[in-house]
Write a structure and sequence with these properties.
14 strands, 381 residues, globular, four-stranded parallel sheet, Rossmann fold, 43% helix, alpha/beta, seven-stranded mixed sheet
């Protein structure tokens, strides 16, 4: 259901472990008097407010609230932010996107965090000619859905190639296994990882996929163990890693662990650091400028950020990016889409320049702490 938030998502600031309540009422950031037209821009948000992934949605909305306060304090633009729940379900996400567009008349949508929900919602946005920005979903090619769909690509495929490089040429592993949720994105990553490992003289000796929502990974672990790998590349999301890593320890499956940049999540270290010992993974690819912008904004509005993770930053950047496009265009339609396209093209060039000039840093977990391991030249796909 659509929820119009009443007080810039104040409930999100609660540090309680359970999700904070989401009051009713619209979030309107008042436009400064000198701004002129009085137009209010309406931005729809899609994320899992309820369900088992509500913690992710809470983090996403925390970033949104920081962006909203920053706009209020520094910009000449009025924004009305309307959030809709996906519950982590693609069908609910589709219905929520339809409601945001048809009933709430939003000018643009930011969301929907998970790849599956993002794709279903983006299809609705494309059909209705509404700009849609994905800031967190890791599925490659979401922007290929259509010309109204944009994606902040964090380079999951680039990370996967880099992980193969580190596994084979830095760690000198020959037999490597793969574990991930059963979805199209994981299947593509597995094929890419397999080809890159084989190019470097290694073998992908096992590839296991589990159904979404799985909590018991014993069967997958035992199947992988039977292949006798030297290393295990786990391309799972943070919530699944919190369940998988302790089970690897419980079943005494000692093997070199390799992961994607989401292994940087402070929550992961807080909950399962001892099960990550020796694990190797790349930096999260958020440039220092992006991180600093969020930190500066939170300081400006006196709302500290304890954890700069992809979800908080994704919520923040999504609203700021849409607001940037709205300031340079009409509130909706083709002009907004064109401005958003310019912004995303500039961003893509900056990202490529960053990894090509600085390389890709990898970390290793030692004594429960993340430490620099190696920096490799950015791989070409």
């Amino acid at each position: 259901s659509v929820r119009k938030l009443s007080s810039l998502l104040r409930g999100i600031k609660s540090e309680k472990s359970s999700p904070a309540p989401f009051p009713t009422g619209k979030v309107v950031i008042e436009k400064k008097k000198e701004s002129g037209s009085g137009t209010i821009h309406r931005i729809g948000l899609l994320c899992p407010i309820t369900g088992r992934l509500s913690a992710i949605g809470k983090a996403f909305l925390h970033g949104v609230s920081i962006a909203a306060e920053e706009l209020k304090a520094t910009r000449h633009i009025s924004v009305e932010i309307i959030a809709a729940d996906t519950n982590g379900d693609p069908l609910i996400a589709r219905n929520s996107a339809e409601e945001l567009i048809a009933r709430e008349k939003v000018d643009a949508i930011v969301g929907a965090v998970l790849s599956s929900t993002t794709i279903s919602a983006a299809e609705v946005a494309q059909l209705n000619g509404v700009a849609f920005l994905s800031t967190v979903a890791t599925e490659e090619g979401i922007s290929n859905i259509g010309d109204w769909i944009f994606q902040m690509n964090r380079g999951t495929e680039t990370e996967t190639i880099a992980c193969a490089e580190v596994a084979c040429r830095v760690l000198h592993l020959k037999r490597i296994a793969f574990l991930a949720v059963a979805d199209p994105h994981s299947y593509r990553l597995e094929r890419l990882f397999k080809s890159e490992v084989e190019r470097r003289g290694g073998v992908l000796c096992s590839a296991e996929f589990y159904e979404e929502g799985t909590t018991d990974f014993k069967e997958s672990i035992e199947k992988i163990r039977s292949a006798a790998p030297e290393g295990l590349f786990i391309a799972s999301d943070t919530e699944d890693l919190i369940l998988i890593l302790p089970q690897l320890s419980f079943y005494e499956f000692g093997v070199q662990l390799i992961g994607l940049s989401n292994w940087n999540a402070p929550r992961l270290f807080k909950m399962v650091a001892r099960d990550m010992e020796g694990a190797v993974f790349p930096d999260d690819f958020f440039s220092q400028d992006e991180k600093q912008a969020l930190i500066n904004a939170s300081a400006l509005i006196s709302e500290p950020v304890k954890e700069v993770n992809p979800f908080v930053l994704g919520g923040y950047e999504g609203v700021i990016t849409i607001a940037d496009a709205m300031e340079k265009s009409s509130s909706s339609g083709h002009e907004l889409r064109e401005e958003l396209e310019k912004i995303m093209n500039n961003r893509r060039h900056s990202y490529l320049k960053l990894i090509n000039s600085e390389g890709i840093p990898f970390f290793i977990v030692l004594d429960g702490e993340k430490r620099p391991f190696v920096t490799i030249k950015a791989p070409h796909q």
